[in-house]
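Weekly modeling sync, notes
Attendees: S.R. (lead), two postdocs, one rotation student

Agenda item 3: backlog of single-chain predictions. S.R. asked that every request posted to the team notebook include the full sequence so nobody has to chase files. The rotation student volunteered to paste the first one in as an example of the format we agreed on. Action items at the bottom.

Example entry:
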Amino acid sequence: MKDDPDNQGSADEGAPPLLPERTVTMGGALPLPEPPADQGRSSDDGVHASSAGRHGTIGRYEVIYPVGSGGMASVYMGRLGGPAGFEKYVAIKLIHPHLAGQKRFVEMFLDEARLSAKIHHPNVCEVSEVAQENDQYYMVGEFVLGQSLDKLMERLLSTKMNLPLGCCAQICAQICYGLHAAHETRDGNERLLNLVHRDMSPHNVLISYEGLVKIIDFGIAWARDRITQTESGLVKGNFAYVSPEQILGRKLDRRSDLFSLGVILYKLTTQRHPFDCDSQVQRINKIVAGSFVRPGEVDPSIHPSLEGIILRAMASSPEARYASAEIMGKKLEDFARSTGDDISNMAFASLMKALFRVELEDHQAKLSAFQRFRVEQSAGLPDPGEFSLSPGAPEIRKGSNSALRPVSAELLPEILPELLAPRRFWREGWLTGILIGLAIAALAWVFWYASEVQNQRARVDAMIQQTTTAISPSPGAGRPAETVAPEPVAEPATRTPGTHPAQDEDPPLAKGKKKKKAEKKAGKKAKLPGRRSDEPSEDDSPRGPEAGKPKPPDASADERLPLPRNPYK
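Predicted structure, as returned to the notebook:
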């Protein structure tokens, strides 16, 4: 039978019977060839072993550490550097070496890169570049620091926590908006690509530590202009989340992704899978028949409005589902707002950082190790040689213009202490010298100020002593002075009665002349050299009978000379 260009092989359009176990072929669309013998695989999930902890370059990007690995490619965290300290962290998806030579897988890888690059939405991880390194293709996209929705469900179950219904609805509403942007993707001629994700599962939804929801991995998405087409009778996607029409091989449209999203919402709210069975065959039969327990019966706390949204999204017939992811997203967001729960990005960020604290610290430790690695390389240590990120893979060598030289991580603990110690000592010694110098200067100033204060006090005390000695009286002056009776003043002659009254007083002109003479006389006394103004002059000496007697010392001389004030008392 020929390939159906619209996606799937032919199938009966009527109601399908339950599929017997022997008729079901499990597996992906293409059988994955086994890796070479030296290409290690883990015993758990088939993840390719890689040499974690080593750093190299892929193209123009520096590799920091491996993030994860899948069936077709491995993902690494990378760094793009630039001038003036520019840097950007990216996700690098590198196709496995044992698949790099197979045309069909290379075409699928390139299809994913082309389709993802056409979708631009905050809820979809964008792809910015696809290139080839040593015959090995890789794509570069947005790096989301967070965890998958699948890991969030597991952590909630292990910690016995239930996510509020409003938060569950808001997460799925953001997924709906991202899916709607993918469904509405157009080509260069503005024609719809009719893109269908076909692998909408919790593994392909990321929630960042900043509370953002992102859809990833359009590796098996179907679109009108894909290079590769699905072979007849093969089913792509995770069987736990595929739609009935996808299992039956019918033509798909955007409503197939809504069924997968309904299953995600069912499991997120009830912490149980609606089609949980012992075998994949029984699960497929239940999906086709639409047989599952209603969410309200599993958890009575689920609101009927939210239950109605889940049941409509999981309808077996595509016509019974929502017409678009945008309509379903609006219904979910309205319900989330009506609950009163905190559905902000900050609330999701706090939840993610609390639940995955160890993983976040591990990322920061790896990033710090990479920064130390770059410091080591900047010192120009010997190059131990080139290496590859995984055994058997082509060499991922440093670029010709790269200043980094890869060094084994085992050498870092031995090299870095010797490398960083001189620089650290120089920086710490320089700072210590400045602090010691400031301390010495402060102590010197304190001692200088104390000595200045002491000297000033000594000078003041000496000045007070000299002044006291100069004004002290002679030894004989300590005796009390003899009291001298004041000389009686002669009464003026009595005027003859009847004399004219004007003769009793000096004329006004005579008063003025006497006043001027007294002022001149006082000025001459003040100008005499070697004599204080308060010393008695010859004119002030007594006349008459008291002229020959010595004048007693002035007992108030000490009171007229003010003493200097001691500022320290």
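Discussion: group reviewed the output briefly. Strands lie at 57-58, 61-69, 73-81, 87-95, 127-133, 136-142, 146-148, 205-208, 213-215.
Action items: rotation student to repeat for the remaining queue; S.R. to check formatting next week.
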